[in-house]
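Tutorial, part two.
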Amino acid sequence: MKSKLSKTIGLIIIIMFSLGFIQFIPEVDNATTIFFTLTVRVPNSNVRAIDCMYLVKQQLARIGLNLQVLIVEDPWPFLDIPDLIEYDLRYIEYDDLTLSEMINSLYTENGSRNIFGYDITMDYIEELGTGRNEWLIKDFNSIIPPNSQERYIICWEWQNYLMNNILPCIPLYCGLDYIVYWNNLAGYNYADGLLQSWGKMSWNTIHPEQISTNEIVVADSSWIDLNPLIYSENRGSADKFINDLILDSLIVKDSDHTYWPHLAQSWEYIADNQIRFTLREDIYWQDYFTFTDELFDADDVYFSLFMSKLGGTNDWINSITKVDSKTVDVFLNYYNCIDDITQFKILPEYYLNQTQELDGVTPDITHPSWTDYRNNCFGTGLFMLDDFTEGVETILLVNEDCWKLDSTVTNDPALDFERRFGDFSGGLNKLTIMIIPNYYEQELEFEAGKIDFFDVSGFYIDKRDQYLADSTKDLQTKATPNLSILAFNMRETRPNIGNRDLSPLDPSMSIGLVIRKAISYAINRQEIKQIIHNNEMITSDHPISPYFEEWLNPNIVKYNFDLDKARESLIKAGFEGYCPHFTPGINSYSYFSVVVGIGLLLVSSLFLNKKRKHMKGDQSGV
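Running the prediction step on this input gives:
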């Protein structure tokens, strides 16, 4: 009897594990059809991009498309010479483009970054005399002022049209930057930046190694040249950071991409190629030795614009006219230059134009003031340079006479100043910039408490998690002005995604467009984000970066992962063969667990039943 029970239990165990093992064998269907092969170009310098494309290869196989991954040296990502356009898809990352640059350089027929092969014949409308995409972008460019509601609406309309009717790319991800700081600091906003947060910040307590509650200490590399008019390849982010603190612009763009008048009290477009700046009154330059009580006026603006045009650093300037002491007209080479203007700093004409060349007009840049200004920059901004120790630190103090602290100026409703900059009641008046170019030395100094902020964007997730778990630290993130995309090569030379014949089942779209839609639906960006990027990216549905928040169409067409829609699109393109199914009813691990559970129950039942009979036999013999 015991032998029979053992055999029964053994048989059940064999069947149980056999059934479970079968569930782990990948399903293979010999009827699976590969409709066609695509090639994707990915740069060999980007390991994550390569991993991403191999995952995309697996995802496209689910709908019967084979993806050949070409890992290539790609030093010129936007160069389209003949041997570089023999591909179907291309992984591209771009950053540091303004909204206008992004739209015009990427998505117009003659755009310098139009790697998609878009041309106006793809959506030509006789009444418009051009492609609808081109027409919408031209309309967007022409609307003034640049932050008008009408311009937002046109931008939204263009985005939806492009992604629904052209679909030149699959937007992938926008990166995130991270900063950690001691949490006894209140009022800091990473997206707004240190300058715009200054009037809102204050220290609640003292952290380890902190010396004062009226000071902020940060770390940066050493600056090289503080005159923004002098072109130097050595000038970098450290120079720009100090310039932004000391110098002002006519117009400022906030982190929410709205534009505000600063040194200009107002601006208006008199014509498409002419903009008039009316300047603020009662703004003074910082005192510098014998130069005191100098008022900001049109001479400073004219001089700065003239020298910038002369140096070739601002090609938007055609010519300048000084109308009067508070009015300057600028004639433009292109009218869509508002972002260029926000980056342009105004310098002191009275100091840098003390002598002229032989023509009596052109400022003499050999004058000692030019050499001095490169190391002793001063302006109309919130900060002034106090001290510099080479290789050690730069110290800036708040300029107590700055117009930003003068309520008679900041009460202008057009500035909305207190909401944007705070009331400066936190008691901060000193900024120390420690010169620590080494990233890891900055980390050590931050953890010791000797600096107050540390940029952790370059660190792995476990380091950021460590700071998140630290009760003495706070961590903030912000979107970066970049975007990775999977670009389609829509040129007619590509037999599938570039096919401009009409779809046999949906004549409103070309075959190439429905194939591009199929690919877009088949790619699971959330899966890629989780596996490749540790969920640290922002997934984008827009042809522009999520960094441009308010400009993003809130109702744009979305290509979320949907294999049914992907298959429907392939059928519209004329591919009606068998397409492998993906969605499982129950996953292998779960099914295996069920089989094991049932098997164990059967074994236990037999064992208990046998034991019960054995016990009855024992009792009858007493």
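The first helix runs from residue 2 to 23. In part three we will examine how such features are distributed along the chain.
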